[in-house]
Amino acid sequence: MSQAPLAGRNLSVLVVEDQEMMRRLLSDMLLLLGVEDVHEAADGREALDIVAARPFDAIVTDLTMAPVDGLAFLRTLRHARFGERAVCPVVMVTGHASPRSVMAARALGCAQFLAKPVTREDLGKRLRRAIDAPVRFVLEGEMYRPVLPAEQTDDGGVWMVG
Fold first, then answer.
1. Rounded distance between C-alpha atoms, residue 149 and residue 158, angstroms
2. What is the reported pTM?
3. Distance CA 136, CA 156 (A)
4. What is the pLDDT of residues 4-22, one digit of tens each?
5. In this structure, are residues 94 and 112 in contact, taking their beta carbons and an 8 Å threshold?
6. What is the C-alpha to C-alpha distance for residues 63 and 132, in angstroms, rounded to an integer?
7. What is each CA distance from 106 to 3, 111, 114, in whole angstroms?
8. Who's near 28: CB < 8 A, 6+ residues apart?
9. SS3 state of residue 30
10. Smallest Cα–Cα separation from 88: which of 73, 104, 66, 98?
């Protein structure tokens, strides 16, 4: 892997992490990976305000935060009021992943999960996968939900559900 595998892609990424040192570390890793535009939020509430104001190519968020944790942030992000920003690829980072939290994040369209401690190489791989092979979504009512593989047709369409 090159030193800056995401360089030249003109990417904008939001880092959502309540621990300042970890937030800074993730941001620095992204810059070293070649992400040109990195923004930071200290929790899910602040991140939602930032996402409402501008689009991102991806979001890297912690799972365990207060007052708005990663799952609550992701659930709110998927609301139709965010328009195209609602389906932004998300990489969830955590030191406390349980099968339940992973399943909940996947059900909300989390593209990738990354366990702490995070390495620059792993962050680059997960972020690249999240952006290059994004989760597909459908709008149901006022919420976007991920399309499950069983709902996809051979030609890339979506079976009608519900």
1. 9
2. 0.89
3. 10
4. 778 888 999 999 999 999 9
5. no
6. 22
7. 30, 7, 13
8. none
9. helix
10. 73
User: How crowded is residue 111: how many other Cβ atoms within 10 Å of its Cβ?
Assistant: 22
Question: Structure tokens of 143?
Answer: 């919420």
Q: Using only C-alpha atoms, what is the Rg of the chain?
A: 15
Q: Tell me: the pLDDT tens digits for 64-76?
A: 998 999 999 999 9
Mapped onto helix, strand or coil, the DSSP state of residue 158 is: strand
Which of left, alpha, beta for 154 (phi over 0: left; psi -120 to 50: alpha)? alpha
Q: Which residues of 89-100 are buried (b: 16+ CB within 10 A; e: fewer)?
A: bbbbbbeebeee
Q: Per the structure block, which two tokens stand in for 120?
A: 């620059």
HEC-encoded secondary structure of 3-16: CCCCCCCCCEEEEE
**Token output for 2:** 């090159």
Structure confidence at residue 150 as a pLDDT band (50, 70, 90) = low
Structure tokens at 61: 């968020």
At residue 32's C-alpha, the angle toward residues 74 and 127, to 5°, is: 30
